[in-house]
Amino acid sequence: MSKDVQPIFIMPEGTQRSTGRNAQRNNIMAAKLVAETVRTTLGPKGMDKMLVDSLNDVTITNDGVTILEEMQIEHPAAKMIVEVAKTQEDEVGDGTTTAVVLAGELLKKAEALLEQEIHPTVIIKGYRIAAEKAQDILTSVAEPVSVKDTLTLKKIAMTAMTGKGAESFKELLADLTVTAVKNVSEESDGKFYIDKEDIKIEKKVGGSVDDTKLVKGIVLDKEKVHAAMPRQVVGGKVALIDSAIEVKSTEMDAKIQITDPNQLQSFLDMEEKMLKDMVASIVNAGASVVFCQKGIDDLAQHYLAKHGIYASRRVKKSDMEKLAKATGASVVTKIDDLTTKDLGNAGIVEEVKVGDEEMTFVSECKNPKAVTILVKGATEHVIDEVKRAMEDAIGDVASALQGGQVVAGAASVEMEVSKQLRKFSDSLSGREQLAVMAFADTMEVIPRTLAENAGLDPIDVVTELKAAHDKNRKWAGINVFSGKVMDAWQAGVIEPLKIKTQAVSSASEVAIMILRIDDVIAGGPGEGGGMPPGGMPPGGMPPGMDGMGM
User: Fold this and answer.
1) Which residue among 37, 41, 59, 63 is the active-site one?
2) Is 96 designated active site?
3) Catalytic annotation on 66?
4) Percent of the chain with pLDDT over 70
5) 497-515 and 412-425 are packed helices; what angle lies between their axes, rounded to 10 degrees?
């Protein structure tokens, strides 16, 4: 080859590429940094993060997924870790920090194995075996729970809120959570179905978190549309209408020529009659409360008020669906078709001033399948954090009921999995054994982190826990307040099994995916690339690279 031939560029200018160990090292480093960010928030003694966005809006939280979403992470491997948190949030609603910390630690342990010249596919195989075995262990140690175990369900809710801003009010909030979940749960063939969307969390600044209450029905941030309407309707017959209570304009452009002033008057009279007929349909059906998804004409408001009917307009579609579940009403599109059968029941419908806003409370519903928790607090930041804690608690209680199995927390279950995985790894031969051992060590990151966040010595804590588990105390966990080992089950630290199984599967899957990458190619700033550095090689295109002959 002659000396003046330039190298061949197959990628656009500005493309960055890292390969082999370099690519793995960079990806693992990015993932570890994400895990380190949320690690300090884990457990009852976890600290909070203050996140300020580009608009200077402040969020103060220790909820893993909220932190990671607000951080707007750009690195592709780090983004994969954020996805783990989102999956955990969607599937269970809690345990996001645990999942992320496990993923980061799995990659950290894998890095040590890569340094020992163990091939990534061997580590991946070992991790897969260990993850499968961990799921079996978790299922085997779990305890059953049913809808009648109100005390256990309350403990689950309180465990979810411990370490969050709502912790000092966790007794009250746990009561509300369990009652709400029980109300909206539906049982068929011994299985529970719970749609978390049926529990609406409405926030209002004012008062204290103590004033938070459960409304057996729906709270709308709407007011009655006319001053002459009653402020309160007891034993309300509720009509839900998703079309406008006003005269529709024609779909196409239409011109109407009027030659006589009387015609104009008859036009107006006709419009008035149409509105009167609409209101008459509502009155004849026996409705005393109307929620309309669209607008209500001023004249229609006047007629509704004359008949003593309470009405609100422009109610959100999602709220209409919740109202239907709470009151048992059917959403009607054509007002003429409204019948008594379409109406729902509400004990009390009233307009209440909350803070400086008027709100409509549809409460005292019989057997409502949608309820509202009205969260109060001194500031917006406090309420937001209480709301996040409530969402975690609702997710946990719902998961426990749907899965029917729970485990103790306080790092007891992680230590048990770690212990049994170690024993299992002895039965393996080959290098996969090292990866299974690494997975077992990874599970210890949870007790270690809990201890670090509580200012305890992690080595002492983990050693004591190991000793307790070796004596077959499967629920031996860490009491972060005293620094001693405790029976987590008796202490009431209980979590749904789904949190742990989901965290283990998500963390191992993302760790495996990142380990499989050995080449990162990042496109340049321009679309379609440009000329290679130094211009085109002398003599035009190199042979075989003209057109598609490459």
Assistant:
1) 63
2) yes
3) no
4) 88
5) 50
Q: Vertex 426, ends 423 and 430: CA angle to 5°?
A: 145
SS3 state at 36: helix
Q: How far is the C-alpha of 511 from the C-alpha of 35, rounded, in Å?
A: 12
Cβ distance 217 to 371 under 8 Å? yes
Spatial distance between the Cα atoms of 477 and 493, rounded to a whole number of angstroms: 9
Q: In the beta sheet, which residues pair with residue 205? A: 377
392 closest CA partner among 72, 71, 88: 88
CATH superfamily of 18-144+407-519: GroEL-like equatorial domain (1.10.560.10)
Alpha-carbon distance of 540 to 314, in angstroms, equals: 68
Reduced DSSP (H G I as helix, E B as strand, rest coil) percent helix, strand, coil of the chain, to 5: 50, 20, 35
pLDDT band at 533 (very low <50, low <70, confident <90, very high): very low
- At 16, is the secondary structure helix, strand, or coil? strand
Amino acid at the residue 481: F
pTM: 0.73
Assign domain 217-247+260-367 to its CATH architecture: 3-Layer(bba) Sandwich (3.50)
> Is CATH 3.40.50.300 correct for 149-199+378-403?
no
List the catalytic residue out of 97, 212, 360, 442. Answer: 97
346-384 pLDDT tens trace:
888 888 877 777 888 888 877 778 888 888 888 887 888
With 70 as the cut, is the pLDDT of residue 14 above it? Answer: no
Neighbouring C-beta atoms of residue 509, cutoff 10 Å: 18
Q: How far apart are CA 455 and CA 461, in angstroms?
A: 11
In contact, 73 and 66? CB cutoff 8 Å:
no
Considering 319, 384, 392, 396, which one is annotated as catalytic?
Answer: 392
The tens digit of pLDDT for each residue in 168-221 reads 777 788 888 888 888 777 777 767 777 777 788 888 887 777 778 887 878 888
Mark whether 372 is an active-site residue: no
Mean pLDDT across the chain: 79
Q: Per DSSP, what are the bridge partners of residue 213? A: 374
**How is residue 447 written in tokens?**
């007790």
Confidence at 236, pLDDT banded by 50, 70, 90: confident
The bridge status of strand 16-19 relative to strand 519-522 is: antiparallel
State the DSSP code for 206.
Answer: B
63 in active site: yes
User: Hey, what are 533's tokens?
Assistant: 């550095």
| Per-domain residue ranges of the chain | 18-144+407-519, 149-199+378-403, 217-247+260-367
Backbone φ and ψ for 495, nearest 5 degrees, come out as -135, 155
Residues 138 and 417 sit within 8 Å (Cβ to Cβ) = yes
Residues in the chain: 550
Q: Which of 61, 96, 98, 442 is catalytic?
A: 96
Q: Are 106 and 511 in contact (CB under 8 A)?
A: yes
